[in-house]
Amino acid sequence: MPKTVPMIITNTNILVKDKDSEQFKTFNMPSVDPMPNIPFYHCFAEKIAESQYYFKEFMKNLYGKKLSKYIFAIIVPDDTSKLESIFINEFFVNSGACKAVAQMPMSLALSKEDKQYVSVSKSLRSVTLEYIRNHEIIVKKQYDLNSCDVNRIISDAKVLHIDMEYDDVPVYVNNFNMNMDEYFEMGEIISPKAFMQKIAAVDVEKL
């Protein structure tokens, strides 16, 4: 049975759960110069073979040389585009550092107990508001980080879906990147520690 390796694509790097502990180790690609409002891993495309080599060596240090028995459970930012998702999958599969990959946005990892909830998060380029029901994104709205209005987002969250008129739907503020201060009043704050604890136990079969 393949073993799952939880991973998180953050705003600035890649976090990989250590094999022998609940801690996450940081992978930073050497000589990468991030560009404004563009996810850092876009730069991997300029040095694809080199980037994959360094990542595979990083994984060998954590998990040994027999990497083909592992499946990466990759948690990505909520505003990850379909094209970016394809690149992320191809990058890791073709790196030779795993058997396969499965991908899930951060919003779906916030709660295992609630049948429905609202998620709000922020990346380097946008704010994402989502209504989740039965582990599926039902409604998704994105706002440009440079021009969005906080009060509008707070108001939109209250009427994101008709279900919210009849049910008491919890709101989770994803503060993984420590950048959500102005949204704290919206609901329960998920700290970086709390988020990583949720991810540490994620199983690829649940993605």
How confident overall, as mean pLDDT?
91
Uncertain runs are none
Rg, Å, rounded = 17 Å
Spatially, the strands of the biggest sheet line up as: 3-2-1-4-5
Based on DSSP secondary structure assignment, what is the total number of beta strands?
10
Helix content: 10-25%
Largest sheet: 5 strands, mixed
Global outline? globular
Description:
The protein is built from 4 helices and 10 strands. The strands form 2 sheets. A 5-stranded mixed beta sheet has the order 3-2-1-4-5, with helices on both faces. Strands 8-7-6-9-10 form a 5-stranded mixed beta sheet. Strand 2 and strand 3 form a beta hairpin. The longest helix has 16 residues.
Show the helix and strand layout.
Blueprint: E1 3-9, E2 14-17, E3 24-27, H1 48-63, E4 70-76, H2 82-93, E5 100-105, E6 116-122, E7 126-133, E8 136-144, H3 150-158, E9 171-174, E10 188-190, H4 192-200
What are its keywords?
five-stranded mixed β-sheet, alpha/beta, 207 residues, 4 helices
Explain briefly what this protein structure is.
With 207 residues, this protein is α/β, with parallel strands linked by helices.
